[in-house]
Amino acid sequence: MYFRMRLILSVLCISIFSFSQAQSVKLGGRVLNEKNEPLTGVSIKIIGGGGTTSDVTGNFSLSLTPGKKYELEFSAIGYETKQITDVEVIRNQVNELNIVLAVKATTGDNVVITTKNLQPEMKQSIQPSHFKRIQIL
């Protein structure tokens, strides 16, 4: 009796785990700059909750539910933020989304730095005899 209950419970747990895994589908892709170079550490945010970041080769992966539309936001320091709407994944299909981020044009106020020399100008000369010759093998 104990063995039978344990077997039924195990089959039930495996079924639930398999069912929950089948509910999400992988969306993968790559984030590049305008020079076709991978961007590391790009924040990929699912509007409404969740997200990930791109790895050193610009690749990312998200688990999304099929039949639902998502809005994704890609952002990185020094690059324009990009929002992609109506992202949907389909079961039993390769779901890939490759993104190119443009460099953010920055404008700023002019900065003026002024210094005051409180000491009189000091010059120092170095004689060649002060140098040592080093031989590197």
Note poorly predicted spans.
none
Q: Biggest sheet, strands in spatial order?
A: 3-2-5-6
Q: What class, by secondary structure content? A: alpha+beta
CATH structural class of the domain at 23-101: Mainly Beta
Number of strands: 7
Round the Cα radius of gyration to an integer and report it. Answer: 29 Å
Q: DSSP strand (E) fraction?
A: 25-35%
Determine the N-to-C terminus distance. Answer: 80 Å
Helix content: 10-25%
Overall, the morphology is elongated
Mean pLDDT: 82
Characterise the protein shown here.
- Helices cover 15% and strands 27% of the residues.
- The protein has one helix and seven strands; from the N terminus they run H-E-E-E-E-E-E-E.
- It is elongated and about 95 Å long.
- 11% of the residues are buried.
- The longest helix has 21 residues, at 2-22.
- The strands form two sheets. The chain has a four-stranded antiparallel β-sheet, with no helix packed on it. The chain has a three-stranded mixed β-sheet with strand order 4-1-7, with no helix packed on it.
- The protein has a domain at 23-101: Carboxypeptidase-like, regulatory domain (Immunoglobulin-like).
- With 137 residues, it is α+β, with helices and mostly antiparallel strands.
- The model has no long low-confidence stretch (mean pLDDT 82).
Task: List key phrases describing it.
four-stranded antiparallel beta sheet; alpha+beta; 137 residues; elongated
Summarize the helices and strands and which ones pair or pack.
Blueprint: H1 2-22, E1 25-33, E2 43-46, E3 51-53, E4 59-64, E5 70-75, E6 82-87, E7 99-101
Parallel strand pairs: 1-7
Antiparallel strand pairs: 1-4, 2-3, 2-5, 5-6
